[in-house]
Design a protein that fits this description.
Mean pLDDT: 97
Helix content: 25-40%
CATH architecture: 3-Layer(aba) Sandwich
Largest sheet: 4 strands, mixed
CATH class: Alpha Beta
Distance between the termini: 15 Å
Radius of gyration: 17 Å
């Protein structure tokens, strides 16, 4: 806390979050798509680094619809503008659910990024800190290989365009028993182990990059 300045964004997709609370489970935002009765764009397929390079849909009815163009969505543009205006940033984590994964770039390609070794080492330290509390195992690796190809992701943009060396996508608890509907009694333990992981990430960066 004395070494880094931290920015916390609780919810990026506010419209999708509210829709989930009031109507049904929903991944995308609530954009009205021209020429389609299906609403929404997947915010994590709309970032402007290697957008439309596979692992995203051009069909507005699909959950991973990438949008009509890169950065077409105001949520993405606002966050990207903040990062650009307030940098340089050294670390970034995009928290998602679920699967217990801690993944570094790339999502758009199976090629390894230039900083892969440091990114993996940092991710391993994070996973170890998370496991130390309740024994939860998080898989560390590249997005493309660990989960699936996904172009237009925030982790790819922060690393590839904004030069944030330690860029990650994190999938929270669990591995499928409860999925997106994690029981209430797991919320505090989840937060405890995530805090430990973020602290471990900060400590790793301090020791290796400063």
């Amino acid at each position: 806390m004395d070494f880094f300045e931290w920015t916390l964004v609780p919810i990026v997709n506010a419209d999708g979050y509210i829709y989930t609370q009031t109507s049904r489970m929903w991944r995308k935002n609530r954009r009205v798509n021209s020429g389609s009765s299906c609403r929404g764009v997947d915010n994590n397929r709309n970032w402007g680094y290697r957008w439309d390079h596979g692992g995203a849909s051009k069909n507005p009815c699909n959950d991973d619809y990438m949008g009509p163009s890169a950065f077409s969505e105001p949520e993405n543009s606002a966050l990207a503008n903040y990062i650009t205006a307030n940098g340089p940033f050294i670390g970034y984590i995009d928290f998602h659910a679920y699967s217990q994964l801690f993944m570094n770039p790339w999502g758009w390609s199976s090629a390894l990024p230039p900083d892969n070794t440091d990114q993996i080492d940092c991710g391993t330290a994070v996973a170890s800190a998370i496991k130390s509390f309740y024994g939860k195992v998080y898989v560390v690796g590249n997005i493309y290989s660990v989960i699936y190809p996904a172009s237009g992701s925030s982790a790819d943009w922060t690393y590839g365009a904004a030069n944030v060396k330690y860029s990650y996508a994190l999938e929270l608890r669990d591995t499928g028993q409860y999925g997106f509907l994690l029981p209430v009694n797991q919320i505090v333990p989840q937060g405890t182990e995530m805090f430990a992981g973020v602290v471990a990430m900060g400590e790793f960066i301090m020791q290796h990059d400063y």
